[in-house]
Protein backbone atom coordinates (compact mmCIF):
# COMPACT_ATOMS: atom_id res chain seq x y z
CA UNK A 1 0.00 0.00 0.00
CA UNK A 2 1.11 3.54 -0.56
CA UNK A 3 -0.29 6.80 0.72
CA UNK A 4 0.66 10.37 -0.04
CA UNK A 5 0.18 13.17 2.47
CA UNK A 6 0.10 16.76 1.17
CA UNK A 7 1.90 17.94 4.34
CA UNK A 8 5.63 17.77 3.65
CA UNK A 9 7.54 15.52 6.01
CA UNK A 10 4.39 14.13 7.61
CA UNK A 11 4.58 10.44 8.55
CA UNK A 12 1.83 8.04 7.46
CA UNK A 13 1.07 4.78 9.28
CA UNK A 14 -1.11 1.93 8.09
CA UNK A 15 -3.56 -0.29 9.94
CA UNK A 16 -6.30 -2.79 9.17
CA UNK A 17 -9.83 -1.77 10.08
CA UNK A 18 -11.36 -4.98 11.43
CA UNK A 19 -13.72 -4.58 14.39
CA UNK A 20 -14.29 -8.37 14.58
CA UNK A 21 -10.54 -9.19 14.45
CA UNK A 22 -11.31 -11.81 11.82
CA UNK A 23 -9.14 -10.71 8.90
CA UNK A 24 -6.63 -13.22 7.56
CA UNK A 25 -4.24 -10.33 6.80
CA UNK A 26 -1.55 -8.36 8.59
CA UNK A 27 -0.08 -5.04 7.53
CA UNK A 28 3.27 -3.45 8.24
CA UNK A 29 2.34 -0.12 9.86
CA UNK A 30 5.39 1.65 8.41
CA UNK A 31 5.53 0.31 4.84
CA UNK A 32 1.91 -0.66 4.20
CA UNK A 33 2.97 -4.13 3.00
CA UNK A 34 -0.09 -6.36 3.24
CA UNK A 35 0.51 -10.06 4.00
CA UNK A 36 -1.60 -13.15 4.42
CA UNK A 37 -1.29 -14.11 8.11
CA UNK A 38 -2.90 -17.51 7.61
CA UNK A 39 -4.42 -19.39 4.73
CA UNK A 40 -7.96 -19.00 3.52
CA UNK A 41 -10.20 -22.05 3.59
CA UNK A 42 -10.16 -24.09 0.40
CA UNK A 43 -13.59 -22.85 -0.72
CA UNK A 44 -12.81 -19.16 -0.24
CA UNK A 45 -9.92 -17.93 -2.37
CA UNK A 46 -10.92 -14.27 -2.09
CA UNK A 47 -11.19 -11.95 0.89
CA UNK A 48 -11.75 -8.24 1.48
CA UNK A 49 -9.75 -6.07 3.82
CA UNK A 50 -10.08 -2.41 4.74
CA UNK A 51 -6.82 -0.52 5.21
CA UNK A 52 -6.55 2.84 6.96
CA UNK A 53 -3.72 5.33 6.39
CA UNK A 54 -3.30 7.90 9.17
CA UNK A 55 -0.94 10.86 9.27
CA UNK A 56 0.77 12.19 12.40
CA UNK A 57 -1.98 14.82 12.83
CA UNK A 58 -4.69 12.14 12.98
CA UNK A 59 -6.17 12.71 9.53
CA UNK A 60 -6.98 9.39 7.88
CA UNK A 61 -8.49 7.70 4.87
CA UNK A 62 -9.55 4.12 4.23
CA UNK A 63 -9.61 1.87 1.20
CA UNK A 64 -11.29 -1.54 0.92
CA UNK A 65 -9.44 -4.08 -1.20
CA UNK A 66 -10.39 -7.48 -2.54
CA UNK A 67 -7.47 -9.89 -2.39
CA UNK A 68 -7.56 -13.02 -4.53
CA UNK A 69 -5.29 -15.82 -3.33
CA UNK A 70 -3.73 -18.02 -6.00
CA UNK A 71 -5.23 -21.39 -6.69
CA UNK A 72 -3.88 -24.01 -9.07
CA UNK A 73 -0.90 -21.78 -9.95
CA UNK A 74 -2.96 -19.18 -11.81
CA UNK A 75 -3.64 -15.64 -10.64
CA UNK A 76 -5.82 -13.28 -12.65
CA UNK A 77 -5.84 -9.49 -12.29
CA UNK A 78 -9.23 -7.90 -11.77
CA UNK A 79 -8.78 -4.55 -13.48
CA UNK A 80 -8.66 -2.85 -10.06
CA UNK A 81 -5.29 -2.53 -8.23
CA UNK A 82 -4.22 -6.10 -7.36
CA UNK A 83 -1.58 -7.38 -4.95
CA UNK A 84 -0.10 -10.77 -5.91
CA UNK A 85 1.64 -12.38 -2.91
CA UNK A 86 4.53 -14.86 -3.13
CA UNK A 87 5.98 -16.77 -0.18
CA UNK A 88 9.18 -18.88 -0.34
CA UNK A 89 8.98 -21.99 -2.55
CA UNK A 90 6.00 -20.67 -4.49
CA UNK A 91 6.62 -23.01 -7.42
CA UNK A 92 5.45 -22.20 -10.94
CA UNK A 93 2.91 -19.37 -11.05
CA UNK A 94 1.17 -17.57 -13.91
CA UNK A 95 -0.24 -14.07 -13.51
CA UNK A 96 -2.70 -12.93 -16.15
CA UNK A 97 -3.86 -9.33 -16.65
CA UNK A 98 -0.98 -7.84 -14.61
CA UNK A 99 -1.17 -4.04 -14.89
CA UNK A 100 2.25 -2.44 -14.22
CA UNK A 101 0.53 0.91 -13.59
CA UNK A 102 -1.61 -0.37 -10.69
CA UNK A 103 -0.71 -3.92 -9.63
CA UNK A 104 1.99 -5.10 -7.22
CA UNK A 105 3.99 -8.30 -6.81
CA UNK A 106 4.73 -8.84 -3.12
CA UNK A 107 7.66 -11.07 -2.20
CA UNK A 108 8.93 -12.44 1.06
CA UNK A 109 12.31 -10.70 1.46
CA UNK A 110 14.06 -14.08 1.60
CA UNK A 111 13.15 -14.53 -2.09
CA UNK A 112 14.32 -11.19 -3.47
CA UNK A 113 16.04 -8.33 -1.62
CA UNK A 114 14.66 -5.42 -3.66
CA UNK A 115 13.18 -4.38 -7.00
CA UNK A 116 16.57 -4.39 -8.73
CA UNK A 117 17.03 -8.00 -7.60
CA UNK A 118 13.65 -8.98 -9.08
CA UNK A 119 14.39 -7.19 -12.36
CA UNK A 120 17.82 -8.87 -12.57
CA UNK A 121 15.97 -12.22 -12.49
CA UNK A 122 13.35 -11.14 -15.08
CA UNK A 123 13.50 -11.86 -18.79
CA UNK A 124 11.27 -11.09 -21.74
CA UNK A 125 10.06 -14.33 -23.38
CA UNK A 126 8.00 -13.39 -26.43
CA UNK A 127 4.97 -11.46 -25.03
CA UNK A 128 5.55 -12.48 -21.40
CA UNK A 129 7.89 -11.57 -18.56
CA UNK A 130 9.38 -14.57 -16.75
CA UNK A 131 10.83 -14.01 -13.27
CA UNK A 132 12.95 -16.91 -12.00
CA UNK A 133 14.18 -17.38 -8.45
CA UNK A 134 16.92 -19.99 -8.71
CA UNK A 135 17.07 -21.16 -5.09
CA UNK A 136 13.38 -22.03 -4.78
CA UNK A 137 11.72 -25.37 -4.15
CA UNK A 138 14.11 -26.09 -1.27
CA UNK A 139 17.10 -25.90 -3.62
CA UNK A 140 15.63 -28.51 -5.99
CA UNK A 141 14.78 -26.30 -8.94
CA UNK A 142 13.45 -22.91 -9.80
CA UNK A 143 10.43 -20.91 -8.69
CA UNK A 144 9.01 -19.10 -11.71
CA UNK A 145 6.43 -16.37 -12.22
CA UNK A 146 5.16 -15.70 -15.72
CA UNK A 147 3.44 -12.35 -16.26
CA UNK A 148 1.46 -13.00 -19.44
CA UNK A 149 1.18 -10.17 -21.96
CA UNK A 150 3.54 -7.94 -19.98
CA UNK A 151 6.58 -6.07 -21.28
CA UNK A 152 9.72 -6.04 -19.12
CA UNK A 153 10.33 -2.39 -20.04
CA UNK A 154 6.98 -1.50 -18.40
CA UNK A 155 8.01 -2.83 -14.97
CA UNK A 156 9.41 -0.41 -12.39
CA UNK A 157 10.31 -0.40 -8.69
CA UNK A 158 6.77 0.49 -7.61
CA UNK A 159 5.55 -2.84 -8.99
CA UNK A 160 7.26 -4.74 -6.15
CA UNK A 161 7.00 -4.81 -2.35
CA UNK A 162 8.92 -6.92 0.15
CA UNK A 163 7.99 -8.27 3.59
CA UNK A 164 9.99 -10.17 6.17
Note the run of SSEs as H and E. EEEEEEEEEHEEHEE
> Count of DSSP E strands?
13
The description of the largest β-sheet is:
5 strands, mixed
Radius of gyration: 16 Å
Distance between the termini: 16 Å
Counted by DSSP, the helix tally is 2
Note the overall shape.
globular
Helix amount: under 10%
Strand order of the largest sheet: 6-8-12-11-10
Total number of domains: 2
Strand-residue fraction?
35-45%
Low-pLDDT residue intervals, each spanning 5 or more residues: 136-140
* Helix/strand/pairing category: mainly beta
| Mean pLDDT over the full residue set | 83
Gist of the model:
The chain is mainly β and 164 residues long.
Element layout with pairings:
Elements: E1 12-17, E2 25-27, E3 34-36, E4 46-55, E5 60-68, E6 74-76, E7 83-86, E8 92-96, E9 104-108, H1 115-120, E10 122-125, E11 128-133, H2 136-139, E12 143-147, E13 160-163
Parallel strand pairs: 6-8, 7-9, 8-12, 9-13
Antiparallel strand pairs: 1-4, 2-3, 4-5, 10-11, 11-12
Give the key terms.
164 residues; Immunoglobulin-like; 13 strands; 6% helix
Can you tell me about this structure?
With 164 residues, the protein is mostly beta strands. It folds into 2 domains: 68 residues, Immunoglobulin-like (Sandwich), CATH 2.60.40; 95 residues, no CATH class. The chain is built from 2 helices and 13 strands. The strands form 4 sheets. The chain has a 5-stranded mixed beta sheet.
